[in-house]
Amino acid sequence: MSEFVIAPPAIPAVPVAGGGLFPVRRIFCVGRNYAAHTREMGGDPNREPPFFFTKPADAIALGDSVPFPSATQNLHHEMELVVALGAGGRDIPSDAALAHIYGYAAGVDLTRRDLQDEAKSLRRPWDMSKGFDLSAPISLIVPAARIGHPAAGRISLAVNGERRQNGDLSDMIWPVADIISFLSSLVELKPGDLIYTGTPDGVGQIQPGDRVYGVIDGVGELEFILA
């Protein structure tokens, strides 16, 4: 068996409430999954098929400080429920999808909005607006065996103590089971995959020095300073 010609990279991992680490394989993100945010971004909130973009696994950001990224003058916050898969598969039926979930977390999809807007206008990929270094802050993962499968509950985000986003998980256009089912029709899902499930309205700009605090009732909270 051949040996690696360079040292293999470390496996990105997220701490689990109660102990242990969840290894991250891939990060999928759902676009425009709350009606009010869809309207906020100029889209049609009717229930069309979901669309997805990705972030690299090492975009995960842990701890109380996240660096302000390069190449942007308009960084936005997007508060999201994160699903951590403990089992994978193809063409997973919606009524069987929740059994594939290991747990849940609170996360923020950081977005270079100016780069995204430029990419949209030029019909180019969004990758550098979404998948940059440390663009996916995340809380501890809480096992579903402990909290069940939250289908409703407040999801909110505040910047420097001022609430910016305030929605409810029940407002999702595509609930978690349907997201997993649809995504598994496009790719084979695997244990270790994370799914950021979309954000409520109220997304907005953040600056270096801002303190970001997000919470999802019954799931968890995260807080960081943008350094």
Report on the structure:
With 227 residues, this protein is an alpha+beta fold. Helices cover 16% and strands 33% of the residues. It has helices spanning 35-40, 94-97, 113-121, 127-130, 144-147, 176-184; strands at residues 13-15, 21-23, 27-31, 51-55, 60-61, 65-66, 75-77, 79-85, 101-108, 111-112, 136-137, 142-143, 154-159, 162-168, 194-196, 204-206, 211-216, 220-226. The strands form five sheets. The chain has a six-stranded mixed beta sheet. β17 and β18 (220-226) form a beta hairpin. The chain is globular. The N and C termini lie far apart (44 Å).
Helix content: 10-25%
SSE string: EEEHEEEEEHEEHHEEHEEHEEEE
| C-alpha geometry | globular
What is the strand content? Answer: 25-35%
User: How many β-strand stretches?
Assistant: 18
Order of strands, main sheet, comes to: 4-3-15-8-9-12
* Separation of the first and last Cα atoms: 44 Å
Radius of gyration: 17 Å
Mean pLDDT: 95
SSE class: alpha+beta
- Please outline the major beta sheet: 6 strands, mixed
Number of helices: 6
Pick out the low-confidence regions.
none
